[in-house]
Amino acid sequence: MNNKIYLMAALIAFASVGALLIQPTIASAQSSMIDNILNSALPSSNTNDNNQPSQASSSASSSAVPISTSLSCGQVIKQSVKLTANLDCKTDGIIVGADSITIDLNGFTLSGPGEKSSKVGIMFADNDGVTVQGPGTIKSFQAGALFSGGEDNKISRVTFTENEIAVFETGSKNIVIEDNLMFGNSIGVAAHSSSGSKLTTNLFKSNDLAGVTLVNSASNELSMNTIQGSVNGIFLDGQSTKNNVNSNNVLQNRGVDLNNGNGLPTNINDNVFSDNNCNTSVPDGLCLGR
């Protein structure tokens, strides 16, 4: 129940920044999206298709080397695993149940019941030191990956598509998101009350509302990412401070490429923008040579 309450509080906070996206019609679209998520809030407990909790069988709490195994939807994973087949779920996909393990998608696809569902592809609940690695795809969930608390987790070389939010982190620390492809989601990465995350060398393409949004988040680094085809490329709200946005290609977005608090001067919230290749920013002057 605590995770559910925490997530709902985070989503309410997202909804409260109604001006996140400058265009009123888009702001309305985001508000509607958040309302839909709240109305079908992510469950506090997770079950498989038979409504019985499922756990990966292992006498050890973790394993350094992923073990090839057949998984079921809603399974709680307590050891390192490697997928051996696609997983098509009507429930949540995989629930992380231990620290310091690896989930290797091994080229397979984890699919959910749709972006308007209340389901999550991979759920981290206060877990530390967990790695999700591709190649592989996570698609058609409300959140492709959800970090609720926890620190020092990593996602790399994964394709996220057709999710409401590809990666959603709330109350998390030091999350590494690198070398991923995120396309055709509503939002690529959304961070709330999170710090120390590093988003590097990801490709964000045609994520409708935003590539990356930070709300009340501090000391995160966004570098060497390519972001195209959203309303806002990168958005930081007025309560997000001391973030470093550098060396990104943020181009061909429909509204604003770089958005610091809808035009808030960067010295107010101490965010640093440097060497970003972009065409439009609020306030002016955040793009290289402009």
UniProtKB/TrEMBL annotation:
Xref: Gene3D superfamilies: Single-stranded right-handed beta-helix, Pectin lyase-like (2.160.20.10)
UniProt domain Periplasmic copper-binding protein NosD beta helix: residue ranges: 112-281
One Pfam family matching this protein: NosD
Coiled-coil portions: none
Name under which the protein is recorded: Periplasmic copper-binding protein NosD beta helix domain-containing protein
